[in-house]
UniProtKB/TrEMBL annotation:
<feature type="signal peptide">
    <location>
        <begin position="1"/>
        <end position="27"/>
    </location>
</feature>
<dbReference type="InterPro" id="IPR046596">
    <property type="entry name" value="DUF6655"/>
</dbReference>
<protein>
    <submittedName>
        <fullName>Uncharacterized protein</fullName>
    </submittedName>
</protein>
<keyword id="KW-0732">Signal</keyword>
<feature type="region of interest" description="Disordered">
    <location>
        <begin position="265"/>
        <end position="304"/>
    </location>
</feature>
<dbReference type="Pfam" id="PF20360">
    <property type="entry name" value="DUF6655"/>
</dbReference>
Amino acid sequence: MLRFCSHSVRMTRLLLGLLLVSATCVGCGTTREREATEQLVLSNAVDRSISSIDFRPLTGRKVYLDTSYLRQVKTLGFVNSEYVTSALRQQIAGAGCLLQDTSQDADIIIEARCGTLGSDDHRVTFGIPENNSLSSAASLIPNSPSLPSIPEIAVARRDAREAAAKIAAFAYDRETRKAVWQSGVRQSTATARDTYVLGVGPFQAGSIREGTKLAGSRFVRFGDKTANHSPSESFERPPVDYTAEIRFQDGWPIYDKQSVAAHFVEDTGGGSNDAPTVEPEEPVDGATSIATSPTSEEDDHPIR
């Protein structure tokens, strides 16, 4: 009888202990994303740097992109000098420059370089980190039993990955070798942050995320130049968003519906080529109609 009562007491205590542990442990999860996250932050840093370079001063000129100083580094990732080169070519073409396959066919040589392309990892733990201090202290006492290491007891933890890219370009005349234009150093960073609170997570945020996510699912949305740089210059050609889908007509970006319709008619042959071009009454979003390219040669080439 006494044995039965003591056994029941032990079982009751065990059940109470399990209920207490279940109440304090809110949740847990495991996420493996290192390779994909690294590629995202690296490519995002490159895109940010190159999208800030404005090649419009070279609009209409025959240019050759010299990539001899963009060294290829043997890595397992996709983001390397080839990605940087392709991104630069896209931005140059979007600015209305005429890319040439060889330097002999070009009037202007654009030389590009990449000074930084890499990522760092950071981890911050709010709580008690994993340590083996008790085991080390017990080993100093003779005939003492070995003690296990203390596991990590974290109230919250943040894992952060930050990538950086530094890209620059300059242009010079192929024949005279005189300087024509330079972009300045374009440096940018991209981040990815994973936060765990009481075992729940990861809450994913950072510049590569479209809002805050919980384990990949949408959770909630949160809302220097030196003094001697050249003054800003206005161009007839509008800028092209590096990250947006853009249609072109005769090398010029199309931003209004009137130009899109005219472009469709011209491609499909559904209208007369002699029909006059009708300008829209009001520009869309403050953009100027650019259905036709400029006729002035001086406006087409701001820099000689």
